[in-house]
Amino acid sequence: MLSQEQLDRINELANKSKVEPLTDAETAEQKELRTAYLKAFRGSFKNQMMGIKIVDEEGTDVTPGKLKQAQEEERNKQ
């Protein structure tokens, strides 16, 4: 995950862009920080999804086949 300083900088640049135009260097920095944030977010979300198991009221596993397949592929990588 990104550090708190990086998250603060993302917010600082976003707020500044609402008031005045960003310089080319700031725009490039903002794009780089946003890319890093999205990569971290997607990785975290994927990890959460790989740990999910869905069961119905009777206790039967009803996890979608596509998710089961992705979880199996992930286990085989390790």
UniProtKB/TrEMBL annotation:
It is found in: Cytoplasm. Keywords: Cytoplasm. InterPro entries: DUF896. Residues 69-78 have a biased composition (Basic and acidic residues). HAMAP family: UPF0291. Belongs to the UPF0291 family. This is UPF0291 protein QK289_13795. It comes from Exiguobacterium antarcticum. The lineage of its organism: Bacteria, Bacillati, Bacillota, Bacilli, Bacillales.
